[in-house]
Specification:
This protein is an alpha/beta fold. The chain has helices at 12-22, 28-31, 45-59, 61-76, 79-90, 127-147, 161-175, 177-183, 191-194, 203-217, 221-232, and strands at residues 5-9, 99-104, 111-112, 117-121, 197-198, 201-202. It has one domain (5-232). Helix content is 56%, strand content 9%. The strands form 2 sheets. The chain has a 4-stranded mixed sheet, with helices on one face. The chain has a two-stranded antiparallel ribbon with strand order 5-6.
Length: 236
Amino acid sequence: MIPKIVFKEIPLKLEVEMFSAFLDREHSSRILPKYPQFSTIAEPRLQTIETELIRIRKDRAEEIKTKSLEIEKNWRMIEQNIFETLSEIIQEEWPEREVTAYVSVNPVCPRFLDSWSFSVTFDSKCSNMIITHEISHFLYFKKLKKEFPEITRRNYESPHKEWILSEIIATIILNDPRIKNIIGQNAGYYEKHKAIMIDGKPLTGLIENLYQELVVGKHDFTGFIKEGLRVINLIK
């Protein structure tokens, strides 16, 4: 049995918290071009963000509703195929649980591992790729927890090396022909991950080579994670 994604409007409180957090990080470069009004935020900070988000959501309510339905419709066309293919690649079964997609005005789309939920931007032109990327994390970390229980939960998040590895692997999986042929789009790495070098070689290229050797060639995803962890720990 595979999960089914439930699409919901993101709770206002969660959206406010997300904007507040991401505006203080490098992700602000993705938010401010779309919402320049957040370049200066008066105190009280959270109240100011909430007031502006309420206005944005009200002004674009019809567009958000229409595009949310379109996102869900497009996803349903590939949902079962994607879930089954991810299970095949990662060599892990899906649990019987609900996965929640929160439709948001936020151009940054985080995932929440403990609740198996994530956000997707309402006007994204690559929503199927975003959804696939995020749900691949859930299955990947399920396998990681089972096979490598010594890795602490906090290391699943930024900026830890295990998080870096998970993001690189998610992109590699998206570009696996078995997934790419369903979605029809190319995925790219974070620029900061592309810049990481180990002994003069790009980290992303080293992980790609391991994927080809161990996942594509030997169907050994656990071995791939093990080698990926070894490589990632060479980062200075």
